Amino acid sequence: MDLLASMRLYTLSKRHFVLVFVVFLMCFGLTVFIGIAGPRIIAEQEHNGDKLLVKNHSIKTGPFNLVSPPLTTYNQQLWLTCLMQVEHTNVVAFQQHFEINVELKGVLQDASVRHISNNVHQKSRTLHCGAKCDEIIVLHLGYLNYTQYQIIVSFKGLENVTYDIKVNFLWKMYNPTFSQVEIWFRFVFVVLTFMVTCMFAHSLRKFSMRDWGIEQKWMSILLPLLLLYNDPFFPLSFLVNSWFPGMLDAFFQALFLCSLLLFWLCVYHGIRVQGERKCLTFYLPKLIIVGLLWLSAVTLGIWQTVNELQDPTYQYKVDIANFQGMKVFFLIIVALYILYLIFLIVRACSELKNMPYSDLRLKFLTALTFVVLIISMVILYLRFGAKALQDNFVAELSTHYQNSAEFLSFYGLLNFYLYTLAFVYSPSKNALYDSQLKDNPAFSMLNDSDDEVIYGSDYEEMPLQNGRAIKATAKYQDESDSD
Q: Which of 78, 86, 287, 258 is nearest to 171 (CA)?
């Protein structure tokens, strides 16, 4: 038991534990209800390809002249997708390789038109059709430099399709109303996280860092990272037309999520490993596994951003020759992480089931984390559907959001998870008083619990820090010698 900075977890009754879970679920439910009542995340505008087609040209070849809706910085990003439909009742599933050519121009505020790139972007795509045809992403702009865009799209290779097809184009961008809601909610979470971080640090200020439990040390790292995950720099994306704020947000998210994965490994291992935890044997294997996950996520994000700056039609899923290899590598590391975590949990449960304090720490963390993981899987399934593990590997944020609930629920879930852990891992009200008694040998035997007598104290060999206790002990020894 961590005697000098004992956690509030040790003082909670069963009723208090139930109350903690109820409050956590209520706070999470509140964010979900606010999200359901909130605006749609993605605004859409659909156009019939027949009306955009240049005269005397085939619908299977184009070209199509498209003009985007008027845009502001609150639209954040812009997607153009193509929806093809086979006009036939009995269609045999087929796939057709074809080329798509895109010419992009930007409209300035003074209505002048500027070529964004001197070259026509040419990309190879594959049309998959069954009862419906898959949606094809024509281009994606990660930030908006112009108030409007003019795009000319043409196809080559679709003339080989024997069926008659219908072509529709769909503009997608962030709903400006949602952007305002997102700013406010990120601001609220930033303020709440800052307050929780300060309160947690304030509660530990009277204890030496060597007296903190492993959970308390990790919370002092995770709470500042949660502050970055909520991204206090997010409003910059509406003030500066640059890729940097978006890349910074993605970097912070990957950093926090991987730190959370590392926290679970270290705590489940550290609970049963008392004393000094060596860097080479304790931390290094965990850092390698989680570091590879972080490196994969950041590499894909940077690769996509850099290439989109040069070519808005770039899609890493279809344009990276080695993407499947990277996908397999990522899934192998994820599987290795899950197996290692399960191994640590099973070992900890088997070794600590008869140790009251350690067993309590293990049960609480496992129960709360299990609830969070179940809710996360439900959110991901609702967001991406059955293809979550197939085509949506590092999926585009864009096209599967229906309302604000899916965004706010995930942010709220992680924030309230960390707030709950900070509450139960903060020192109890009597922790400082208990530590002073433990330092005083005149009172330590009177205040030792039965558990400490059976299992021993972690601080039996610590030097005395109370000057009066030292003097009292010395005087008692002198009197004993004189007798």
A: 78
